[in-house]
Amino acid sequence: MSPILQVTDLDVDFDGRPAVRGVALTLERGEVLGLVGESGSGKSATALAVLGLLPGTAQVRGSVRLDGQELVGASEKLLTRIRGSRVSMVFQDPLSAFTPVYRIGDQIAEAVRAHQDASREQARQRAVELLDLVGIPEPALRARAFPHEFSGGMRQRAMIAMAMANDPDIILADEPTTALDVTIQAQVLDVLRTAQRETGAALLLVSHDLGVIAGTADRVAVMHEGRVVETGTAVDVFERPQEPYTKRLLAAVPRMDTPRAPRPPTGETVLKVRGLTRTFPLLKGTAFKRRIGSVYAVDGVDLDIRRGETLALVGESGSGKSTTLFELLELAPPEGGSIELFGNDLAGLGKAEAKSLRRRVQIVFQDPMASLDPRMPVGDILAEPLRTQGADRATIGRRVPQLLAQVGLDPAHAESYPHEFSGGQRQRVGIARALSVEPELLVLDEPVSALDVSVQAGVLELLQRLKEELGLAYLFVSHDLSVVRNIADRVSVVYLGRTVEAGPVDEVFERPRHPYTQALLSAVPLPDPVRERARQRSRILLAGDPPSPTRRYDGCRFRARCPLRPHLEERERRRCEQEAPVFEGDGAACHFPRVREVV
């Protein structure tokens, strides 16, 4: 039987610049083909070229045949008939893919009526059925919601529902889980498998996440600089890679199941946080705003960091991780709870003491491009903190070249501007800026999440070396638990603004006690097809999205999503509803903690 999709000698240029060169792919009926590669490798351009969805500035050459029918150069009328019926698309950003002024159900119904002889009522009913199939709660009600009223995970599930609407032959999924938390990612991948099973479609899954590909794809095609450099079964590519680039890519991937030997910290405590709280007003109105409630962003976070230690702060989006960081960096009395920094209680700091402390704690931001002033050369960016601390010109002149060399950059590039550097180099500049005033505690807010995996590995290695050379302490915030396993000594897990588990990284990762920690770790995909598919059989899929932080919850705030709750006795469930678990030191804030191995 011939393949459902055959791509031959595909070239794509943007304004004369090559993006894809000589790509050849085949997709069999019912097969999952994983297309992987780093940013700029051409994988998304390849997927979009299949349906003629590239912008008008793109020049496409070669052949794309759907069941033998040529699509390159095909009329818009033919492509319109094929899009959504025979080949459907799941985009990376569902918020921009949905029309914001139309209801979700109406948009799915429109996709049905565009290709089927169905009445409005039949199309609406089909939309509700599809939303129910992909796990949207109360589908009839949620079909009347607008895209902005859905969470990111729900929007992506709705996008998959639309892709399923006409039982397509092929589903193209372009980075469908990139912007999602790991727990929501697990839900979406499960929904994609459901969509493929229900429609019998072949799936072309584009992703930079090798763990996602390992657990989903039958075959894998690896792209590098616009070309396919290796193809084969998932097992062959992951376990027996042939090409040097594939080997380097796999070697750079941090693995959650490969622990390093953390060194026990021996220094004094540099940061101690107890019961930290922070609320923000919830406002309504335009010209005249009024407060209608509160957002409980942080509602009971405890932290301890010692000199020479890396503490990782992990949790889903909205759990309060970044708010916690900025509360520490304010160097002001907290709204609730206590913060001790280098033995100083922030509640009693004077201006002079706060200025002295500010030098000792610095931050590295998530987005290196946004955090560096584009109008300033790198040398001036590094000199600015030194000037703020009163350094003279001679000191600055010596220090700037030292800093660039320290982070692996050429001191001769001090006159270059941020846009002249790569993403990894810009993050190295950000690290150098943080080190300029010789801090003792570095706060790292998702410092490698915007980087490709090979670049990420270099930055993580740099951070580890700097910590050992300079005796730094790190507070490392990340949603990537594989990165955390490879850099942290201890880990603190937060859920809905509250610490729920903490301890040495190996102890927490190998024997988690809180059901939320177990679900987080269970959802992290391993870049190993055999082990990952075995883990899927016991994967913990949390129900729904995290609750709203705009209300206070009696009892355990995790109970609505807790996978253990249905197995508890009635008196135990009442305790979870009425009594909030207490977190004390290393351990789990759970009434009924149970150790479960998940790696």
Structure description:
With 599 residues, the protein is of the alpha/beta class. The protein is built from 23 helices and 21 strands. α7 runs parallel beside α8 (182-199) and α15 (378-388) runs parallel beside α17. It starts with a strand and ends in an 11-residue tail after the last strand.
Q: Care to give the gist of this entry?
A:
By secondary structure, the protein is of the alpha/beta class. The protein has 23 helices and 21 strands.
Any key phrases for this structure?
599 residues; 21 strands; alpha/beta; 7-stranded mixed β-sheet
Structural class: alpha/beta
Our Rg estimate from Cα atoms comes to 26 Å
Terminus-to-terminus distance: 40 Å
Share of residues in strands:
15-25%
Which shape, going by the Cα principal axes? Answer: globular
Described by strand count, sense and barrel closure, the largest sheet is: 7 strands, mixed
**Helix amount:** 25-40%
Mean pLDDT: 92
Count of helical regions: 23
Strand order of the largest sheet: 16-17-18-13-19-20-21
Note poorly predicted spans.
none
E-strand count: 21
